[in-house]
């Protein structure tokens, strides 16, 4: 519900999980400022938090503004903490002042033009408060939209900027959301690099401004566009935590700031370092959306709220609620070295094992026998595949498998027919050199002609063969990112226009092929974000497929993203990324924590491994509804010890997964307590009946086999 106390100008968004309070108050100069004094557990009376709107600071050096919880802080007004908005006028003046002009409440949730966002299926699912702020001098207006979901601990925020003045403005910063919590909070974020994405980092802002960001043209491997503020005593199971995910896949910045007045501010939005936008009179600019999820029951509660919202109201399409097929991908089995017969051998072995989908990875098009050519030339290579994609797809279908295909649509190789025809279609900075990475350049997705080309080229391939799955890859980041299409001082728009163009392409293609399951990828998990998940319900989590490394990667990813979004494959040993040898069982048990598949030469496995693979496939089919759509709970962290454990639960079963990396001599007995098990009786793997409360209180012994890299998957079926 949204309660608007118009007499006192207090707005209270409240459901049984969360409250958010906004307050309009005079700034001392006759203007009305918008403050956001509270976001947390439900309040009985919003007036109880208004003491947080009283300015503090005594001496003349202390600007009272640096103590207030502004909802939309701007530069140049004495707040000094990270701001959301900076608009420059034609004189280069950047001071921006935004004051309250009005509000309205709408049922449901408005869409964001051209951008991915959380949505409702029925207006009764949510209410939206829209508050307008305006700078009287420049005419810049900011419409802040707060949506409260009726029965979720989730609030979304986005801002629509509008130039209602008579002169062009340049937006130097056009942020999405800001929350200032009283007190000190830990800042949790996910950092990494290629093959080691999304490690959990928890730090105190320690009277500093901390920033995570990307200016890579993708959300990136290094930082993820997700962060949390957690009470310093919060654990996985207790304490206040506020998660925030930006629904965006390009350059972003998230700051956490603690100043001398002891409050902690979080801001999220586009990265001002690689952004500027000319806003002519009458034009609007839509900033991306932020999803907040709140829990007073620890990080698991925060993550679970985020998981179900992303799974059910960010992801879309036919595959959103469907069980995902078990796939075999040929990348690590063959790299570029394959032909029709080799693929059919692997596919035959996959069919024998009960696998459901064959994915043909990089190397099927142009003259691509290595990674130095042909991106952009989406025409089948008949030397490798003499029967074409259609012939191969039909042969694979005849085995009972669906057929899937890899693309890297946003790229262009200098050695390609596309580049020879359109050398101006790549991102480039005027006459500067065009630096390649992985021997490729990036298409200028901000251009409509490029977007149209990509839509048609990919659609033509999808129409030409029985393709039921697409892996959409992106294998390099921006360098010298400029655009020939942008004149008039607009080069600073390149990165965001790229994203808007990409989103237009994704919308067109995914709408045109609703039965196709799309999975995004960027050198593994370099673009794992809620923006991509709006178009494609799953993402390749990491190029690192080692079972031990995957424990941390999948655990970290789960801080924000549901397991239904995480591609997780069993690969060969020694592992191609780090050379480790783990058993087939451990590899399968780890991959079972995401969208399960294989990435090895199935036609060259030992009979024992094939037997184990058949067992895994059968097991995954039996329990995947729970592992993909049940409630996921982290129990033991790979960042803290030798044993990792997590749990899945729904109304039919509870599954405990535990992994011990190294065996210990004369080790202690281990047990793990399950958490929030749906009430009832369960049949344990040994046939005994056990109650939900005993699983929580007495726990389950972890009887690992006597070797390194051991794992257990224990299924407790509801009786
Ligand atoms: C990077 C991806 O992450 C891999 O899985 C594979 O598809 C290669 N690209 C192919 O070039």
Please identify which CATH superfamily of the largest domain we are dealing with.
alpha-galactosidase from lactobacil brevis
Q: In DSSP terms, counting alpha (H) and pi (I) runs of 4 or more, how many helices?
A: 12
- Low-confidence runs of at least 5 consecutive residues: none
Tell me roughly what share of residues is in helical segments.
10-25%
What fraction of residues sit in β-strands?
A: 25-35%
Q: Mean pLDDT score, rounded?
A: 97
Compute the number of structural domains: 3
The CATH topology of the largest domain turns out to be Beta-galactosidase, Chain A, domain 5
CATH architecture verdict of the largest domain: Distorted Sandwich
What is the global morphology?
globular
Q: How far is the N terminus from the C terminus?
A: 38 Å
- Any ligands, ions or cofactors bound here, and which? (2R,3S,4R,5S)-2-(hydroxymethyl)piperidine-3,4,5-triol
CATH class of the largest domain: Mainly Beta
Write the topology of this structure:
Blueprint: E1 2-5, E2 10-14, E3 19-26, E4 32-40, E5 85-88, E6 99-107, E7 126-134, E8 140-149, E9 154-163, E10 169-174, E11 177-182, E12 185-191, E13 199-203, E14 209-214, E15 223-231, E16 241-246, E17 252-258, E18 263-270, E19 277-279, E20 284-286, E21 290-295, H1 298-313, E22 327-329, H2 331-334, H3 340-353, E23 357-360, H4 388-398, E24 402-407, E25 411-412, H5 417-421, E26 441-442, H6 448-464, E27 469-472, H7 494-512, E28 517-520, H8 530-535, E29 538-540, H9 547-557, E30 566-571, H10 584-591, E31 595-599, H11 607-629, E32 631-636, E33 643-649, E34 653-660, E35 671-672, E36 681-683, E37 689-691, H12 692-697, E38 700-701, E39 710-718
Parallel strand pairs: 22-23, 22-31, 23-24, 24-27, 27-28, 28-29, 29-30, 30-31
Antiparallel strand pairs: 1-2, 2-3, 3-4, 5-10, 6-7, 7-8, 8-9, 9-20, 9-21, 10-19, 11-18, 12-13, 12-15, 14-17, 15-16, 16-21, 17-18, 25-26, 32-33, 33-34, 34-39, 35-38, 36-37, 36-39
Helix pairs in contact: 6-7, 9-10, 10-11
The protein binds (2R,3S,4R,5S)-2-(hydroxymethyl)piperidine-3,4,5-triol.
């Amino acid at each position: 519900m949204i309660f608007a106390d118009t007499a006192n100008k207090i707005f209270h968004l409240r459901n049984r999980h969360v409250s958010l309070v906004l307050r309009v108050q005079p700034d001392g100069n006759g203007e009305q400022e918008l403050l956001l004094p509270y976001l947390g557990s439900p309040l009985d009376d919003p007036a109880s938090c208004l003491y947080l709107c009283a300015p503090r600071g005594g001496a003349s050096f202390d600007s009272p503004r640096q103590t207030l919880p502004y909802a939309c802080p701007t530069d140049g007004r004495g707040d000094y903490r990270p701001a959301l908005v900076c608009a420059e006028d034609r004189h280069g003046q950047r001071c921006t002042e935004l004051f309250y002009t009005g509000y309205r409440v709408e049922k449901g949730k408005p869409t964001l033009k051209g951008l991915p966002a959380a949505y409702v299926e029925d207006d009764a699912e949510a209410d939206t408060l829209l508050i307008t702020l305006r700078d009287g001098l420049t005419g810049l207006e900011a419409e802040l939209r707060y949506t409260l979901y009726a029965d979720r601990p989730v609030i979304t925020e986005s801002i629509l900027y509008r130039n209602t003045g008579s002169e062009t403005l340049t937006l130097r910063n056009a942020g999405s959301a800001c929350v200032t919590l009283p007190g000190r909070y830990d800042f949790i974020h996910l950092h990494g690099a290629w093959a080691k994405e999304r490690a959990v980092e928890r730090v105190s802002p320690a009277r500093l401004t901390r920033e995570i960001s990307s200016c890579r043209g993708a959300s990136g491997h290094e930082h993820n566009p997700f962060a949390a503020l957690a009470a310093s005593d919060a654990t996985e199971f207790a304490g206040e935590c506020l998660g925030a995910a930006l629904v965006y896949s390009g350059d972003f910045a998230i700051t956490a700031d603690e100043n001398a007045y002891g409050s902690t501010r979080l801001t999220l939005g586009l990265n001002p370092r690689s952004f500027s936008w000319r806003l002519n009179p009458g034009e609007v600019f839509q900033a991306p959306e932020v999803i907040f999820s709140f829990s007073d029951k620890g990080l698991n509660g925060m993550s679970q709220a985020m998981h179900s919202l992303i799974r059910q109201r960010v992801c879309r399409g036919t595959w959103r609620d469907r069980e995902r097929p078990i796939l075999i991908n040929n990348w690590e089995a063959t790299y570029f070295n394959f032909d029709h017969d080799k693929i059919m051998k692997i596919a035959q072995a996959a069919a024998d094992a009960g696998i459901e989908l064959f994915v043909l990875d990089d190397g099927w098009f142009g003259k691509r026998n290595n990674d130095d050519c042909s991106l952009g030339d989406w025409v089948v290579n008949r030397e490798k595949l003499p029967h074409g994609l259609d012939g191969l797809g039909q042969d694979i279908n005849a085995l009972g498998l669906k057929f899937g295909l890899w693309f890297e649509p946003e790229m262009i190789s200098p050695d390609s027919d596309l580049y020879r025809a359109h050398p101006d279609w790549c991102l480039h900075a005027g006459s500067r050199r065009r630096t390649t990475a992985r021997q490729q350049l990036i298409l200028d997705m901000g251009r409509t002609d490029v977007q149209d080309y990509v839509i048609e080229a990919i659609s033509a391939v999808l129409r030409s063969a029985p393709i039921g799955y697409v892996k959409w890859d992106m294998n390099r980041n921006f360098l010298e990112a400029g655009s020939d299409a942008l004149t008039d001082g607009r080069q600073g728009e390149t990165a965001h226009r790229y994203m808007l163009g990409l989103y237009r392409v994704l919308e067109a293609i995914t709408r045109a092929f609703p039965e196709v399951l799309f999975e995004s990828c960027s050198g593994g998990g370099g673009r794992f974000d809620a923006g991509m998940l709006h178009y494609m319900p799953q993402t390749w989590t990491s190029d690192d497929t080692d079972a031990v490394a995957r424990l941390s990667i999948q655990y970290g990813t789960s801080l924000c993203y549901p397991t239904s979004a995480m591609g997780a494959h069993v690969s060969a040993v020694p592992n191609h990324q780090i050379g480790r040898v783990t058993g087939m069982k451990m590899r399968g048990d780890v991959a079972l924590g995401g969208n399960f598949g294989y990435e090895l030469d199935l036609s060259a496995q030992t009979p024992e491994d094939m037997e184990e693979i058949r067992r895994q496939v059968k097991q995954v089919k039996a329990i995947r509804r729970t592992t993909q759509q049940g409630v996921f709970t982290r129990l033991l962290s790979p960042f803290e010890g030798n044993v990792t454990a997590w749990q899945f639960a729904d109304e039919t079963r509870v599954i405990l997964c535990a992994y011990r990396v190294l065996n210990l001599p004369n080790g202690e007995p281990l047990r793990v307590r399950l958490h929030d098990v749906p009430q009832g009786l369960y049949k344990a793997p040994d046939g005994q009946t056990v109650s939900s409360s005993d699983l929580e209180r007495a726990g389950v012994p972890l009887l690992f086999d006597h070797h390194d890299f051991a794992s257990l998957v224990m299924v407790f079926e509801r009786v």
